[in-house]
């Protein structure tokens, strides 16, 4: 049975802050977690790398971010990691990349794909990624593109930087306390975006508090929020 | 552990068409299913009863609908059934009923409450029921109303008659094929609304087809659609 | 066949500014137009009446507004006019008024009801009127409230003072050029709200321009905008 | 006077399931119905054609779907039929196709254009078609692209596969009982998508039931649902 | 000139977590800040008070919460404080309270009113407060309720506990770093809700980070988020 | 400190009707106002130019519109004016133009950018402009595209032709009475779109009336409406 997870992000840092907990948690449970980063985020999400005293080349920034992403992915237990190097701010349209994502879907047969939400006026790279994922999903389902077509996977959008600005409406809270330490280490493997560490630690604590509220749990909890795009087929509401 | 289900409907017929499958399925799995009908639907949802040649009294209509509801509930395996007899078309506001629902919540400690969606311009009784359920949920959670306060249950809205008119956005599809026969019998236990039988048989087939599409199932499937109001806390996305 | 129109407004002035054209147009075509004003708008929409040098009694304001409304209604060709005198700013809840509106619906059997839109944060009297109309519509449809139950009428919301603030999304434009003169006279029959004359003349010109745009008409046009609540059953899209 | 209808779909099957009734009804009334299919749906909507024992070529699938579409269009009384053969799953962007649609608009001068709704996360080909139609509509209105510019037609979106998922809000119900037999035959002229026959028969019955409810009709009714994009200019609300 | 601020909350704690910074900041600038608490939150928002070993009376809880609110209000520099003691979970409807709020508006003539947002399925007391404030605003504007009628104030909604669940869309960020120490002390003056301290400290840090992002500020910032209900009349966009 | 304003429009006429008041007002206050027109609107928004007796060349229309725009811009006090000449109806995608806008942002460092709103089914050129502006804003913020990266400016959408059709929700009203005469002259400097003069005069009067209503002003007021995309960081709510 298909039980893998595919994560598609616009920039290398996104998977750590937004769904690093889900990745570690599923990897720990034996679910293969595949990761695609459409760009290195070299232009718009590597500010620290550009702010040193000495001039820096774009390729050096890309190498740096790639190394950080590989380190973080390893901490989270990622099964495969693919960099498309499309450039960012803005991320260009790329039918070839849509096809390439669809081929990864055919090869890995994910039950669920994690990606950015549909809207974000402050970051259209995220919107474009969402659209590319949905388009790739169609391509992966189509018999005319190969007999290995897939059952259409669920798509879950992870949390953007400012949820309300993006119309993000989470309907799933994932409790990630058991893997928080891993997520925190993966965040620290990204010193180029050091400025985001405490921000996303607080995000995890807020989502954990919300999850605990519904569950009357005790102790400090960490969480991540997700919004499902398609109706989920469930066997029951109460166990 | 709390594992019961509470269903609150505006009129007696609603539970059969809208969530009869969920009720039968959970009852079959050993989940206690409790049912509250705020009215008999005697004025606005018992048309056949009023259309005979001979004049009919409202009390007779209420008795008829009560008997039908009891028969249908038994077929579905309901654990308890409560009629509030508030009157319908329109259903009046009733703080006392809110409190009474909250007491049932305290007594039965449901993990999930099924009720009408928030909006329905063609049937404000449904909207009022939704609001009463949310208000009762608050009252049931409050320590100041008794030490037996509950962990706040999830609220799932079942399908209205015209989904788009009501802004209904289902995010959960429940496959009910295994209990379809029971639901169909429960529907037939309501001859006063015989005109709805084939309509809701088709609704079940459409929702089943949609569920099957996501699951690549074969054979005829039956389904029901639901919209969750609160984020669900989940342990994982992929088993 | 049923072919009457029912208009229900919160305050006496509303019918003139918002749907005076539709009223005159239909009256002219022989459609009986019935009007219900839930209040005289004496507190919040009669400012000129309160601003004179001499003190004024509330009853005097009500009489004044009633006389204005009767004059305007006559100009527009209204078939019947009913004042509920519920008070305004705020308009109170009134189950009795809901029932009374429903009885008028049973008596007049309107094909369409014109009223305020659902939302208006600056004027909750309008929202309450909308809700009362929908509730009365249910009551009028219910066989249990009398054998003279009606086929449910379409509900059309007329334009609020600030459309975007109210989430008003018109899907119907009525060209009222042929009756503009009548509407203008009816507006002038309401000197207490003289401050609104040019505002609503401009509204009519804007809606007329929008209607003309779609129809490639020439000359000055006047219009009114409406939003339908229920799907309309149409025989064809093109004549 | 302009009185034609233009239908633009992403894939060949769409016009049958979604607006075959409107097409037959208007053709029967003497309205010329023009049809544009942007792709043959060969990759993603011809599953049965790919699932045989023997391998199949894409061109053969396209020929098959073309023949089916021609047969269905003839049954529905289509006046002209144009295949753009853009490919599908995904349908590519095509400014040339936008221009070509605009030229058909100039040539046929439709009063109304039927196409897909704006949103559909499960099928971005539908969204792209919607956008291409709106862009072509602009191009057709512009004097700078030729003196034969058109009065902007109304755009009506037909029903997607899962209405709520697409945010589809129908405001028009077309009763198609008189042409149901034709629509049913046209559906059967598409054996490649045999799996959709009963699904869309039920859609027609549900929309017919909803139309009948508003009209108090008797007997089995069939219907189709539409959402208008632009305000409609109407001469009256009640005849 | 009118330059006061009015805050209306459902429960005593709300003003501290949600707008304590705005209150302290404006008080510091010499703006009179008036506060109305519709209930003591004794039933649903005083959990710690009910969880001791010994039984406790509702009146004792109310006294405790009142004292906490008075202490917090003093820290924040509140000019006047009014408790309506309506009860909570649920907060009842109260036309008398609407009138009383409107009288405070007439007396204090606020330029802005801070209150809860319109929607919150987990806490209908907040929704009811919003509605009461808007209704009171109407009553305060109406000449028929007294010659001291007010210019309608702006209404700003402060942040609910789970912003996305409530459809909260902030369009204003208030930087409160200068008064954070006061807000933090006011929070600590509410030990009954000690469980919320760190949650709302993190909310303030997140909103501060978002404010700083737009302003390229440095250092730790604290903020609060607000959503305006009415269009703001502004003299310019750039100073 | 940055205090300039950048205006980006799809067609040359747009800046006059939609934000001419804001431009004149800020220019008068010493704020440099920079203007980019992506097209001359030669195809779709120059109807009068194409309707003469003699045939006309597209280049002549473009020259005409350019001259009109230059005259209007001078009246409004524009500091710089850039024509991209991309063509219109439809306006094509253009990554190069996105980059060029971003370079202007880097050079002029606007505190605020005025442009079209996100949605407009009747004019996709407006939507594309909005998207290009947001994409250019990202590019201008990115250190990897140059060390002169900017603090992200606020984006304010000005009013479309039919606000409700576009989902336009203004939250800012700018009172432009002091510069109305200039705006009116700028409108008259565009005789090719003479048909819009009175329409937009009425828009200005309606927005002025709405602004006055909130401010209890007297006399005839003129206004413009805007919707902010990002939360504004404000120092206080009451002065």
UniProtKB/TrEMBL annotation, chains A, B, C, D, E, F:
<dbReference type="InterPro" id="IPR003737">
    <property type="entry name" value="GlcNAc_PI_deacetylase-related"/>
</dbReference>
<dbReference type="InterPro" id="IPR024078">
    <property type="entry name" value="LmbE-like_dom_sf"/>
</dbReference>
<protein>
    <submittedName>
        <fullName>PIG-L domain-containing protein</fullName>
    </submittedName>
</protein>
<dbReference type="Pfam" id="PF02585">
    <property type="entry name" value="PIG-L"/>
</dbReference>
<dbReference type="GO" id="GO:0016811">
    <property type="term" value="F:hydrolase activity, acting on carbon-nitrogen (but not peptide) bonds, in linear amides"/>
</dbReference>
């Amino acid at each position: 049975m298909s039980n893998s997870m595919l994560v598609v992000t616009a920039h290398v840092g996104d998977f750590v802050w937004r769904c690093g907990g889900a990745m570690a948690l599923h990897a720990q449970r034996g679910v293969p977690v595949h990761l695609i980063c459409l760009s290195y985020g070299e232009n718009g999400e590597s500010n620290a790398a550009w702010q040193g005293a000495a001039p820096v080349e774009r390729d050096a920034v890309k190498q740096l971010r790639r190394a950080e992403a590989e380190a973080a992915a390893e901490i989270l237990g990622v099964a495969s990691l693919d960099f498309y190097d499309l450039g960012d701010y803005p991320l260009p349209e790329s039918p070839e990349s849509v096809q390439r994502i669809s081929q990864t879907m055919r090869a890995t047969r994910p039950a669920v794909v994690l990606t950015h939400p549909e809207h974000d006026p402050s970051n259209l790279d995220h919107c474009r990624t969402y659209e590319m994922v949905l388009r790739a999903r169609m391509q992966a389902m189509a018999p005319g593109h190969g007999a290995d077509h897939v059952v259409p996977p669920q798509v879950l959008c992870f949390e953007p930087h400012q949820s309300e600005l993006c119309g993000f409406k989470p309907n799933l809270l994932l409790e990630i306390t058991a893997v928080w330490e891993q997520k925190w280490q993966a965040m620290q493997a990204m010193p180029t975006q050091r400025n985001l560490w405490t921000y996303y630690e607080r995000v995890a604590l807020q989502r954990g508090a919300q999850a605990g509220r519904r569950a009357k749990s005790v102790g400090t909890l960490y969480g991540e929020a997700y919004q499902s795009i398609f109706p989920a087929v469930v066997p029951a509401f109460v166990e």
